[in-house]
TrEMBL record:
This is Corrinoid adenosyltransferase. InterPro entries: CblAdoTrfase-like (IPR016030), CblAdoTrfase-like_sf (IPR036451), PduO-typ (IPR029499). GO terms for molecular function: ATP binding; corrinoid adenosyltransferase activity. It comes from Cohnella abietis. Pathway: Cofactor biosynthesis; adenosylcobalamin biosynthesis; adenosylcobalamin from cob(II)yrinate a,c-diamide: step 2/7.
Length: 192
């Protein structure tokens, strides 16, 4: 099988149910999810290399998330979503909420906004968070113009919260303090 097909040479690509321009808002939405999945893969590679801490739990969760991001892309690839064929379910979003609660318990109290960064794993989790937010914005744009599976948006919204939480947990595991945004007010209720 050849990897190239030449069918996209004219600037169009296939979606389930037709062909669209490669810059179509639907393609932009699932393309951003694909980009996010690549950053998750990079984060996994860094965690595997970072041996000072046990990352087995996060590696397992991140691999599952990569599969679920493919599910998100699959659901968005329908020109007109068919409810019974959608793969993203409320259970997936609920699982993320449980993980957020679990990892939040591993972080110190937070009262102010923090700067993205700290350790290398935390920095990559923040990159995942911001790309996830961009994917979510692309999805909102898509939903304003075309039919769009609602559960994908809920999943992405929760996923960005997950990445924020595990960025903080990674810093805590590695002994790095989060750097607070110094000109910010106290905005979080969870304090000391």
């Amino acid at each position: 099988m050849k990897i190239y097909t030449r069918t996209g040479d004219e600037g169009k690509t296939s979606v389930i149910g037709g062909r669209v321009m490669k810059d179509d808002i639907r393609v932009e939405a699932y393309g951003t999810i694909d980009e996010l999945n690549s950053f998750v893969g990079q984060t996994i590679s860094v965690l595997v290399r970072e041996t000072t801490v046990d990352w087995v739990d996060l590696l397992e969760h991140l691999t599952l998330i990569q599969h679920e991001l493919f599910d998100c892309g699959s659901d968005l690839s329908y020109a007109e979503p068919i409810p019974e064929k959608m793969k993203v379910t409320p259970v997936m979003t609920e699982r993320l909420e449980a993980l957020i609660d679990h990892y939040e318990g591993q972080t110190p109290p937070i009262t102010r906004f923090i700067l993205p960064g700290g350790s290398e794993p935390a920095s990559l989790f923040h990159v995942c968070r911001t790309v996830c937010r961009r994917a979510e914005r692309r999805l909102v744009s898509l939903a304003a113009e075309q039919d769009c599976p609602e559960e994908v948006g809920k999943y992405l919204n929760r996923l960005s919260d997950f990445f924020f939480t595990v960025a903080r947990a990674a810093n805590a595991r590695l002994g790095h303090l989060d750097v607070e945004y110094e000109r910010g007010a106290q905005v979080f209720r969870r304090g000391s």
